[in-house]
Design a protein that fits this description.
Blueprint: H1 7-14, E1 20-26, H2 33-41, E2 48-54, H3 61-71, E3 76-80, H4 89-99, E4 104-107, E5 113-114, H5 118-128, E6 134-142, E7 159-160, E8 169-171, H6 175-181, E9 194-196, H7 198-203, H8 215-226, E10 229-240, H9 246-250, H10 255-273, H11 278-292, H12 297-325
Parallel strand pairs: 1-2, 1-4, 2-3, 6-10
Antiparallel strand pairs: 4-9, 5-10, 6-7, 6-9, 8-10
Helix pairs in contact: 10-11
GO molecular function: transferase activity
Pfam family, one: Glycos_transf_2
Domain Glycosyltransferase 2-like: 21-140
């Protein structure tokens, strides 16, 4: 999706070869970035380009990325903001998007790893479901990589990302967004998803007001509200957990204080897009209320959880009791 080239000519050239633009953004990622890059080179689908986007690193990761770009000039490019600025995750992703040439775009964070068949299997799904804007699956929440001096809990075990929806199916809007608001579904981690490049023409790029926390949820929620998404049962990524990762840094902060910018953005986006789905609007309004009442909200959420459990139990007992009466 290079703005200096004719888009239609570029698409007709690339589509037959299924070129995938892989975007790795990084900020001081020298500890892990070479592993991430190696996992791209190990892909069984070999037709890809790699864009290494430097968000103002001050460690050795800039030199590592530049070395790969020099060694593989036909496949790897090094990108940075003007004056080597640090502008945040959304701006870094957008810089990569603006320089991408592929019909498909995938993100890989510098501390994560792709499994070898990720691109091959996701592209096969796109062939079967061309209407899908995005394909994603499970992720391995990865603690077992940890070095002896790592500050993560020694007792923590790896586990797999819970999809929260029926796997191996095409999900139409706004179902995934509704499940997200009901806390029954999570957005995929960026390293998990593969998207058609036309998605960015439809919904725009990442919102640069969100520099770190929730930058992915804001973007993925736009897709959920507008386009079908294929959710697979496959695991394609190892999502590394370490003390510097965004998810670990924020896990002890106030949940509702962190969510306030996200939820108010959702509210404004629904209005700006003219989305009038009553259920969606009600769910966003309920989440706004929780953010405004952070002391009461957790109690009500817990109560709702137990009510749902009781309801599910009663529903499971109805067929058995009916059989006994007959």
């Amino acid at each position: 999706m290079n703005p200096t080239k004719d888009p239609e000519a570029m698409k007709s050239t690339m589509r037959n070869h299924s070129l995938v633009s892989v975007i790795i953004i990084f900020l001081n990622g020298e500890a892990f970035i070479e592993e991430a890059i190696a996992s791209v080179f190990a892909q069984t689908h070999s037709i890809w380009e790699l864009l290494l986007v430097d968000d103002g690193s001050t460690d050795g990761s800039s030199a590592i990325a530049q070395q790969y770009a020099q060694q593989y000039p036909d496949r790897v490019r090094y990108l940075e903001h003007d004056a080597h600025q640090n502008r945040g995750m959304s701006a870094a992703r957008n810089l990569g998007i603006c320089h991408a040439k592929g019909d498909y775009i995938g993100f890989l964070d510098a501390d994560d790893l792709w499994l070898p068949d990720k691109l091959t299997q996701q592209l096969e799904i796109f062939k079967r479901f061309p209407e899908a804007a995005m394909v994603y699956g499970r992720a391995q929440i990865w603690y077992s990589w940890a070095a002896p001096n790592c500050s993560l809990p020694a007792s923590q075990s790896d586990y797999f990302y819970d999809l929260g929806v029926s796997a191996n199916s095409l999900v139409y809007p706004p179902s995934l967004f509704e499940q997200l608001l009901k806390n029954k579904h999570q957005t995929p981690i960026p390293s998990n998803a593969l998207m058609q490049c036309q998605v960015f023409e439809l919904i725009g790029q990442f919102e640069e007001a969100f520099c770190g926390m929730y930058e992915d949820q804001v973007f993925f929620s736009k897709i959920m509200l507008h386009r079908p998404i294929y959710v697979a049962d496959n695991c394609w990524v190892r999502y590394r957990q370490h003390a510097q990762s965004c998810s670990v840094k924020n896990e002890h902060q106030s949940y509702y204080a962190l969510r306030w910018p996200l939820v108010t953005w959702w509210k404004q986006y629904l209005s700006d897009q003219g989305i009038q789905d009553a259920d969606v609007i009600q769910l966003v309004d309920q989440e706004l209320w929780r953010c405004r009442h952070p002391r009461i909200a957790p109690v009500l959420v817990r109560l709702q959880y137990y009510l749902d459990r009781v309801k599910h139990l009663l529903q499971s007992l109805v067929p058995a009791s009916t059989q006994r009466l007959s």
